[in-house]
Amino acid sequence: MIRINKDPYPPDVRYTQNGHAFKGHIKWRVAEASMLADFRNDPQPFLEGKYEFGRSYGYVEFRNALERCQGPKCCFCEKPISGGQIEHFRPKAAWKQANGTPLNRPGYYWLAYRWDNMLISCGECNASGQKGNLFPVVDPRGAAHSHCRDEVKTIINPAEEDPSIWVSFNLDQPVAVNDDERGKENIRIFKLKTRADIVPMRRDRLELYQAQRDIASLSQPFGPFDASKIAAAKHFIRKAQKNKHPFAGMIRENIKKGII
């Protein structure tokens, strides 16, 4: 994980109907008002998990804007992705305190169209075996709209917090900072040590960085490494440390520790 510099404001997507633009009407607010009215009129579909949250609020524009903020990579595991999924940090339809426990409904439905509740994740991190509807908090749970921001949550929100406070790396291995329980839980929830889709990819990225660093350290052309290859290597190691690039959190943590 790495801190995401997320734009505080959602993209400006206006509401239109039958070709007529409603000036000043923002699509997500219109969608939210409709959803809240549905809940007031009949909460049963929300309680049964049958309510259909729509994409009329500007889903594509929101997804594109999120990718511009965090880069084309997963907000949690940092692997490169193409497209990705909008991840509702607080689950909109249902939540559970721990894997293997029943779902509780309704979820945080009032945050379904809120920009500050959205990130982009890979399908694996957003799957039921990892985060999915999992959202453990320290009691009490903020069930009321005005109280949910006061929850002491377990899962790190990289758009609000600096994950390096809790999760670091020794080479390609994720470790909890000072053996911290929150760090260990996030490593466990996202299976950062064991997932076959990220462990080899993360190792390859580290090895590539180390190889490029060695080339960049050459003071003059040597053997097959001419001036252009040295310049390209320097460009790569600068780029690999930037927030929006895959596994930048791992690279930066190792640099900070003096490991690489």
Mean pLDDT, to the nearest integer, reads 93
Largest sheet: 2 strands, antiparallel
Into which percent range does the helicity of residues fall? 25-40%
Note the total helix count. 7
- Rg (C-alpha, Å): 21 Å
Secondary structure class reads alpha+beta
Report the sheet-strand fraction.
Answer: 5-15%
Q: What is the total domain count?
A: 2
Account of the protein in words:
The chain has 7 helices and 8 strands, in the order E-E-H-H-H-E-E-E-E-E-E-H-H-H-H. With 260 residues, the chain is of the alpha+beta class. It folds into 2 domains: 14-152, no CATH class; 199-257, no CATH class. A two-stranded antiparallel ribbon has the order 1-2. A hairpin with a 2-residue loop joins strand 1 (14-17) and strand 2 (20-26). Helix 5 (199-216) crosses helix 6. The mean pLDDT is 93.
Topology:
Elements: E1 14-17, E2 20-26, H1 27-41, H2 44-48, H3 59-70, E3 85-88, E4 118-121, E5 137-138, E6 152-153, E7 167-170, E8 173-176, H4 181-189, H5 199-216, H6 227-240, H7 248-257
Antiparallel strand pairs: 1-2, 3-4, 5-6, 7-8
Key descriptive features of the protein:
260 residues, alpha+beta, two-stranded antiparallel ribbon, 12% strand, TIGR02646 family protein
Task: Briefly say what this structure is.
This is TIGR02646 family protein. The chain is an alpha+beta fold and 260 residues long.
